[in-house]
UniProtKB/TrEMBL annotation:
It catalyses: beta-D-glucose 1-phosphate = beta-D-glucose 6-phosphate. Keywords: Carbohydrate metabolism, Isomerase, Magnesium, Metal-binding, Phosphoprotein. Its EC number is 5.4.2.6. The gene is pgmB. One of its GO terms (molecular function) is beta-phosphoglucomutase activity. This is Beta-phosphoglucomutase. It comes from Paenibacillus aestuarii. InterPro entries: B-phosphoglucomutase_hydrolase (IPR010976), Beta-PGM (IPR010972), Beta-PGM-like (IPR051600), HAD-like_sf (IPR036412), HAD-SF_hydro_IA (IPR006439), HAD_sf (IPR023214), PGP-like_dom2 (IPR023198). It comes from the Bacteria. PANTHER family: 6-PHOSPHOGLUCONATE PHOSPHATASE, HEXITOL PHOSPHATASE B. It is an enzyme of class 5 (isomerase). NCBIfam families: bPGM (TIGR01990), HAD-SF-IA-v3 (TIGR01509), PGMB-YQAB-SF (TIGR02009). Its cofactor is Mg(2+). Pfam families: Hydrolase (PF00702). Belongs to the HAD-like hydrolase superfamily. CbbY/CbbZ/Gph/YieH family.
Amino acid sequence: MTTHIDAIIFDLDGVITDTAEYHYLAWKKLGEEIGIPFDREFNETLKGVSRMDSLERILEHGGRQNDFTPVQKEALASKKNDHYVQLIQTITEKDVLPGVENFLKQIKEAGIKIAMASSSKNALFVTEKLGLMTYFDHIVDAATVVRSKPDPEVFLKAAKAVDAAPANCIGVEDAAAGVCAINDAEMFAVGIGDRSVLGHARMILQSTKELNLETFLNEYAKKD
């Protein structure tokens, strides 16, 4: 049995703060602008997926995947981001999900590295608005990654940035694609949310209120 953990690596959206609603509203606005309406159920399929991949899914959903050139698609993705950035201007420290900051303090005090592996290009901006920058040793966002989740690149990059061996890392996610990325990085996956969606994680919590380092250590110790 081993309890040695080099780093705990967090997703941002839905784990540290709930920006999912802002993403939904921004995509919905773009969808309306190009004549592709969609609902919250379809929006669930975009969770943890990069901006360009999300756009491709939306265009396919509306049967318009061949109506735009690559340059036009980049412009559409940029427009969605403009909508999103406008919405997140109002984020404050009050938008940190329950239990998160206390958990970050526990990790810091235990001398374990803290990193972020986010699909958002706005991860630094959002983390700063939340007042949590001092806790993170490194943040990897979509701007520095070639392949988006479920590819493990973003988690492997975060581990490397804090000199952590992937096998000694715990990844925390709320999206199915993110849990796949953690598993493929050969890290210990913790899912926050619906068991029916995140059943491939090694440990599942119903909400961030259950985040606790002792629980993590106990479950991690059983992994071998």
